[in-house]
Design a protein that fits this description.
Helix content is 24%, strand content 24%. The longest helix has 15 residues, at 55-69. By secondary structure, the chain is α/β, with parallel strands linked by helices. A 4-stranded mixed sheet has the order 4-7-6-5. It has a 3-stranded mixed sheet with strand order 1-2-3. The protein has 2 domains: 6-85, 2-Layer Sandwich (GMP Synthetase, Chain A, domain 3), CATH 3.30.300; 89-147, no CATH class. The protein has helices at residues 6-13, 26-29, 55-69, 92-100, and strands at residues 32-38, 41-46, 75-79, 103-104, 120-124, 132-137, 143-147. Bound molecules: zinc ion (ZN).
Length: 150
């Protein structure tokens, strides 16, 4: 029995939002590495973002729920740790979405997402989650989160 197609699965995964940043999908984040069918089983390879990131359990649960909702029930989620996930796997559009959402995208230069000022101060190495740090813009005085570059 046909259990979905590679394109269909990518489509479904592209609609699964990042549990922490709802404006970007797990595909845009670069977590989904590969989708393939072996016999009739769909094998989805995912790479956790930051090692020990608690979100990986949420990623898996959200993927399972979305696939089952789309009647794809014969699948396996395969975790791949090498090569390690890096913020380079996010494309320009994704970084732009982050910025519009108010999070300074991963880059060596922290830029205020509100006014584009580079005149910022780090308040805390950890924001709401370990993968983000807290900053304050010294021009518009707005606090913001920066997605750490790894
Ligand atoms: Zn600013």
């Amino acid at each position: 029995m046909q259990n979905g197609s590679v394109d269909q699965v990518w489509d479904i995964l592209n609609q699964v939002p990042d549990p922490e940043i709802p404006v970007i999908s797990i595909v845009e984040l670069g977590v989904v590495r590969d989708v393939k069918f072996i016999n009739d089983c769909c094998i989805i390879s995912i790479t956790p973002t930051y090692s020990g990131c608690p979100a990986i359990k949420t990623f898996e649960d959200d993927i399972k729920t979305s696939l089952i909702k789309n009647k794809i029930t014969n699948f396996k989620i395969n975790k791949v740790y090498a090569p390690a996930w890096t913020t380079d796997w996010m494309n320009k559009e994704t970084k732009e979405k982050l910025k519009n959402y108010g999070i300074s995208p991963p880059s060596n230069q922290v830029v205020c997402p509100q006014c584009n000022s580079k005149n910022t101060n780090m308040i805390s190495e950890f924001g709401a989650t370990a993968c983000k740090s807290m900053h304050k813009c010294l021009d518009c005085l707005e606090p913001f989160e920066h997605f750490k570059c790894i």
